[in-house]
Amino acid sequence: MTSHDYQLRPSDWARALLPTLLVIAGLAMLLKAAGHLGLLPAPAVAWDPELTVMAHQSAACRDPEPAEILIAGDSTCLAGVDARDLSRQLPDQPRVLSLALYIWLGMDVYAELVSDYAKAHPHHVRTVVLLMTPSKLTGTSETEDGAAIWRRVHSKKGRGGGANDAGLGNDWLGTRILRRHLLSHCLATPLRGSGAHFFGFSSEIEAYLTAHRGSLPTFGTAVPPRRRAGAEPPAARYVLAPAQEEKSRAFRANMPPGAKLFIGLTPAMANTTSPAARRQRDDLLRQWNVWIGADAILTNLPPTLPSVFFSPGAHLNQAGQEVFTRLLACEIAPLLGGRPVADSARP
Prior knowledge:
This protein is an alpha/beta fold.
């Protein structure tokens, strides 16, 4: 038995659904137009993990608790050294703060952070440790877009914004614009990809950076490339990029008064470079030092570490960060006039 029987014609469906569809289309057009005209607020910093890191490092310049040792460098330094643990392993446990950023930002940006921190904390910084991957010195990884994003984040008004809007042309309903420019200011944005299982949200990245004094881990284990039996990795060719000379000299000029500068290179995966990597890297360090004039070059840092210590993105993972932090403590402790707290650090 049929209790009800509805006879709906296409015109009935149109009258029922068309008003809702018109409202959705109108809102989408409004959002897209407002986004293109710059009428919407910039995305919140928490929208993008990289923005979160840059905003945190920028704000760290005004951290009320002064640090005696600053760590600067690219993302291999950001992920390779735990500033809090390094402090615990150095003689007298001086406060260490990492201001490391990304490879696509220039050495002039690293220098700006160090200089700004020293101005906010005069007479406190006594050592700056600058660590970078060799490719940073041998290539031109900086981008104008990256520099523009940094300027917006580091400016007085720049607590948000700067994220690239590429790809929004296919956002027909304006949902991505809505999430980026409006909802990101009032709702936590779940992370995706590497680190999502550990942090969950960008707000947790901020909390981790604060707890570990500007250091951030990466996750997972890299799969080393397959090679024929007996085949050696390709020989590395380390040639300083001329564009780095001016920025290296500027970094030295922006050093805090009276502070010492130590420079070093972060390690590569063991089976991706030739056995001659140490000599080549040491030569690169010495050549770079002609420009930057460091007080010490950290030639005893390992040129490579086993692949188990790297994440798929070629950065040190949590285990690698722990190992490299101990090795760095062993290397710089004598330069600070003492011995590392844990002499068992060196494997």
